UniProtKB/TrEMBL annotation, chain A:
Cellular component terms per the entry's GO annotation: ATP-binding cassette (ABC) transporter complex, substrate-binding subunit-containing; maltose transport complex
A molecular-function term among this protein's GO annotations: ABC-type maltose transporter activity
Domain of life: Bacteria
PROSITE patterns found in the cross-reference section: ABC_TRANSPORTER_1 (PS00211), ABC_TRANSPORTER_2 (PS50893)
Alphabetic keyword roster: ATP-binding, Cell inner membrane, Cell membrane, Membrane, Nucleotide-binding, Transport
Official protein name in the record: Carbohydrate ABC transporter ATP-binding protein, CUT1 family (TC 3.A.1.1.-)
Residue ranges occupied by any ABC transporter domain in the UniProt entry: 18-248
Family as reported in the entry's similarity comment: Belongs to the ABC transporter superfamily.
Automatic annotation (TrEMBL), chain B:
Record key words, sorted: Cell membrane, Membrane, Transmembrane, Transmembrane helix, Transport
Organism: Tropicimonas isoalkanivorans
Gene3D superfamilies, sorted: MetI-like (1.10.3720.10)
Cellular component GO terms, alphabetical: plasma membrane
One Pfam family linked to the record: BPD_transp_1
Alphabetical list of InterPro entries matching this protein: MetI-like (IPR000515), MetI-like_sf (IPR035906)
Lineage, uppermost ranks: Bacteria, Pseudomonadati, Pseudomonadota, Alphaproteobacteria, Rhodobacterales
Spans through the membrane: 22-44, 146-170, 182-204, 216-236, 257-280, 315-336
Top-level lineage group: Bacteria
Membrane disposition: Multi-pass membrane protein
GO BP term (any one): transmembrane transport
Family listed: Belongs to the binding-protein-dependent transport system permease family.
PANTHER family: ABC TRANSPORTER PERMEASE PROTEIN MG189-RELATED (PTHR43744:SF12), ABC TRANSPORTER PERMEASE PROTEIN MG189-RELATED-RELATED (PTHR43744)
Protein name: Alpha-1,4-digalacturonate transport system permease protein
Domain ABC transmembrane type-1 residue range list: 147-336
Length: 382, 350
């Protein structure tokens, strides 16, 4: 891939803002999208992330026009496009299976869309050459998709989207069929492509690493509803609820249930944890869940307020170590230590959560407990 | 060629034949004999004269009596070898036969007629294909007209069949609409109705449309075949929907998706249906027999049938015409069969 500064005379930059207003989708009685409100700003790289079956792909297909909208409004560049067919929306989509036309050469694959737009032949040839050079597939133009490797097919699929000069790019889990190494490489390429073209991009993935590394903004979806919208680190640092806290970050956040007792937290295993004052609004007797990330649990000498746990498994990666342990109450906790660890399976550890990095959630509703209720609700709704 | 030889002489035993080699070659030889035997017999017989065909017991190769042109005789005379009597061992030409006596001449003395017993001579024969069987087809019968009728009906009907069936199959495979399941069930249901059941209603409908005794009366009624729709639909189901979605995103119209994406990807199934349709139409006999009445509209199959009279059957012409009728289908199959096995639809995805 060439650098962002180079000229691309035949690819114009068109981009648009995308707005979803209370969008819903039902298949028969099953409601798969339940009132999504979302605005993707012009030129933004927005990632939809969520577990499989959360409706993220359906939402993307509704934006593309391949799936119709049951209720609500989709606006692209300010115009309501609910009844505009996919072909007329000026979008381009990269599919999970690439969906290249198997009987056409790469060149024909790239030019098919332009032919349908009645672009003059000369211009098609120039645009195709330029995009192919940009994606480094110019030497593959006369091959058939079956003669390409997975990564090359992926590039062709992206190229097919780029030549169309779409207002918005839609990506439907484009990297899930690639091996780990290629995935990292293509992640970088798509990010550079975004930097270079500056189009609005909507990217669907179930992989939170992809979401964290590529997104300007992440939309976490569950059961057809938006759980939280925000910049990657915003989601990581202040998750709005238990689901987002557990979904973003790897290994996932540790959750320990307990009750508030005189401003402190009594965990179900009987141990007491000090909670910094002023950061959370706590009511005595409330059932809460303590969330702490694996790298914010520090093994310490036996202390009064520390957590007591038994090591069940250790993953030594050389540069990092992950320790999986079980508390006296049977709750699994994991622990991330930089470097290598000398802990062994069966060892007893005492853990101290970093008091500045604690998250507290209402066990019943799952919502984050914070001192400022206004901020709380805004993060929830967004 | 070396590949073919290597393939045909492949054995399990190394160096010598394993008993399974004997068994498989014997089995295969039996298969070849059962399948090719009748065809070879047909082809060889088509080169036999009527007299040779009537002969019992039959002989495999076409023989014709050796003749000689002698002075003083207008027609060529058949040669005989004399087995008994004064001329024993000599070859003579027969002038005429009267009862049990045969009047012959020796080729050296064409004017001197000798009478010998009919039982004392055997005909001198040699292998000679009776090409006049084929010549007659073109001279006495209007073979080219029937050939053209058959070709026109076969090609037109196949083209219409492919177009109509693939369109129906596309709709049934790739569009969601109310009643789709019912339509598919109906198509499959029609598969189970034998043609003879619908023959009379079909005849009446064709008559009402005024298409009787015209090629269109043969072409149109059979254009949409449930087999074809079913075959193509099953194949089109294997084309991933994402490819169609991609084409929609590429601003292709639904017709363009059908024409540029679905049809090329269904090529193997379409080739199969083309072969089937050509064979059905070319070999079809019953419906053309009902729909066509004037002999200038006859297809080859009907023309063949007309050789078979109530009193007498012209086997020599019939067999020659049968061979010519078989040829086009055999050629079509030979050239198209390689497309049957080729599948390309599944290679565009992961």
């Amino acid at each position: 891939m060439t650098t962002a500064g180079e000229q691309t005379p035949h690819i114009s930059r068109r981009t648009a803002r995308l707005e979803l207003r209370n969008v819903t989708k039902s298949f028969g009685k099953a409601e798969v999208i339940r009132g999504v409100d979302l605005t993707v700003e012009q030129g933004e790289f927005c990632v939809f992330v969520g577990p499989s079956g959360c409706g993220k792909s359906t939402l993307l297909r509704m934006i593309s026009g391949l799936e119709n909208v049951t209720a609500g409004e989709i606006r692209i560049g300010g115009d309501v496009v609910n009844d505009v067919p996919a072909a007329e929306r000026g979008l381009a989509m990269v599919f999970q299976s690439y969906a290249l036309y198997p009987h056409m050469s790469v060149r024909q694959n790239l030019s098919f869309g332009l032919e349908n737009l009645r672009t003059p032949r000369g211009q098609i040839a120039e645009t195709v050459e330029e995009v192919a050079a940009m994606l480094q597939i110019d030497m593959l133009l006369d091959r058939r998709p079956k003669d390409l490797s997975g990564g090359q097919r992926q590039r062709v699929a992206i190229g097919r989207a780029v030549v169309r000069e779409p207002r918005i790019f839609l990506f439907d889990e484009p990297l899930s069929n690639l091996d780990a190494e290629l995935r990292v490489e293509m992640r970088g390429e798509i990010s550079r492509l975004h930097a270079r073209l500056g189009n609005t991009m909507v990217y669907v993935t179930h992989d939170q690493v992809e979401a964290m590394t590529m997104a300007d903004r992440i939309v976490v979806l569950r059961d057809g509803q938006v759980e939280q919208v925000g910049a990657p680190l915003e989601l990581y640092n202040s998750p709005a609820n238990l689901f987002v806290a557990g979904f973003i970050g790897s290994p996932r956040m540790n959750f320990l249930t307990g009750r508030v007792e005189a401003g402190r937290l009594r965990l179900d295993n009987g141990q007491m944890v000090d909670v910094p004052h002023g950061k959370f609004s706590l009511e005595d007797g409330a059932a809460v869940t303590l969330g702490v990330r694996p790298n914010h649990l520090i093994p310490v000498a036996e202390t009064v307020s520390g957590l007591h746990a038994t090591v069940r498994g250790i993953e030594q990666l050389g540069g990092d170590s992950y320790v999986h342990a079980v508390t006296a109450a049977g709750e699994a906790v994991s622990l991330h230590r930089p470097g290598q660890t000398d802990l062994t399976v069966g060892a007893e550890v005492y853990l101290e959560p970093d008091p500045d990095q604690l998250h507290l959630f209402d066990t019943a509703t799952g919502r984050a407990l914070r001192a400022d209720p206004a901020r709380d609700s805004s993060a929830e709704k967004s | 060629m070396a590949n073919v030889t290597a393939f045909l002489t492949r054995t399990r035993g190394r160096g010598r034949l394993h008993w399974t080699d004997w068994a498989s070659y014997a089995y295969l030889a039996l298969g070849v004999f059962l399948m090719f035997g009748p065809v070879i017999w047909l082809v060889v017989s088509s080169f036999k004269t009527q007299a040779e065909l009537d002969r019992f017991p039959p002989r495999f190769l076409p023989y014709a009596p050796e003749t000689v042109q002698l002075d003083g005789h207008a027609e060529p005379l058949p040669l005989f070898r004399v087995t008994d009597g004064p001329l024993a061992g000599e070859t003579v030409a027969q002038v005429r036969r009267i009862g049990l006596t045969s009047q012959v001449v020796r080729p050296e003395a064409p004017g001197e007629v000798v009478k010998i017993n009919r039982a004392d001579r055997v005909p001198v024969e040699r292998v000679k294909p009776a090409l006049e069987n084929y010549r007659t087809l073109f001279e006495r019968f209007d073979f080219m007209r029937y050939f053209w009728n058959s070709t026109f009906i076969t090609l037109t009907a196949t083209a219409i069949t492919l177009l109509v069936n693939s369109m129906a199959a596309f709709a049934l495979a790739k569009y969601e609409f109310r009643g789709r399941g019912a339509v598919v069930a109906l198509v499959i249901g029609v598969l189970m109705v034998p043609q003879s059941v619908v023959l009379v209603p079909l005849f009446m409908v064709t008559r009402e449309f005024g298409m009787l005794d015209s090629p269109w009366g043969v072409i149109i009624p059979g254009a949409a075949t449930p087999t074809g729709v079913f075959l193509l639909r099953q194949y089109m189901l294997t084309i991933p929907d994402e490819i169609l979605d991609a084409a929609r995103m590429d601003k292709a119209s639904e017709w363009k998706i059908f024409w540029r994406i679905v049809l090329p990807l269904s090529a193997p199934a379409i080739a199969v249906l083309a072969i089937l349709s050509i064979m059905w139409r070319w070999n079809d006999f019953l419906w053309p027999l009902i729909a066509l009445s004037r002999s200038e509209n006859y297809t080859l199959q009907l023309a063949l049938n007309s050789f078979q009279g109530e009193m007498r059957t012209e086997w020599s012409s019939l067999l020659a015409m049968t061979v010519l009728t078989l040829l086009p289908v055999a050629l079509v199959f030979a050239f198209l069969q390689k497309y049957i096995a080729t599948g390309i639809a599944s290679t565009g995805g992961k």
